[in-house]
Amino acid sequence: MNPLLRIKDLSVTFDTPRGQVKAVRGVTFNLGRERLGIVGESGSGKSQTGRAILKLIAGNGRVTADRIEFDGLDIINASERDMRSIRGARISMIMQDPRYSLNPVVKVGDQIAEAYRIHSRVSPREARIKALEMLETVQIRDHEKVYALYPHEVSGGMGQRIMIAMMLIPNPDIIIADEPTSALDVTVQMQVLGLLDDMVRDRGMGLILISHDLGLVSSFCDRVIVMYGGRVMEVLEANKMDKAQHPYTKGLMNCSPRLQDPKAVLPTLQRDPNWMNI
User: Which of 90, 227, 239, 261 has CB 3.0 to 4.6 Å from 40, enough for a Cys bridge?
Assistant: First the structure.
């Protein structure tokens, strides 16, 4: 099966008053109709990798790559007009915290409906009906009432479901989920992940799950990319994380507390400067 997305030698560089900062360095991977996890510490380049796919980098940043190809389209050389037809409609990105991603002065239902109208050119009435259907799809009870609420009136878990509904309503081919459960408690985390899993399987989409939680990714994803300092350290099957070969991956796993093996002091990660030269 042909991959949905092909990325080769992707780099993201930012110009700062202190010089250039390389946030992503030569990342290469393909994405099929699967659940792909990207893990690593804060600052490892996970989020910038996801944003670079949609060319959503800050103004002082530059994206370069030998290839970013989606459905035959060369994203690196795509015009802004071409990218507007891809963002949301073909590739959607779920941001980390709905409190900062949703418009605080617009009702949540209207925001979902707007996402559908932009990409489908339907009437306001049709968009409202579709938005209500999506609220029901993401398992929000009393969706008529929730439709009329403002973002500050919903809980964190409900806000994340609303964001998922907004990103899924155009029926994209790929979802990039950037820490979609970091602000949620464990019970709601599993509900949101189960919802994403159902969507990926039922609709045949590709999912990129960006997270710092190795346990969550290893139990949910099919494959995992481990990043450090903007580079890919290791790619492995999610159910074989315990067989990781790279010392960075092993170090991350050893730093995680385990109820069945309590330790007075958790080990710290010993970083090797040579990892940046891989």
Answer: 227
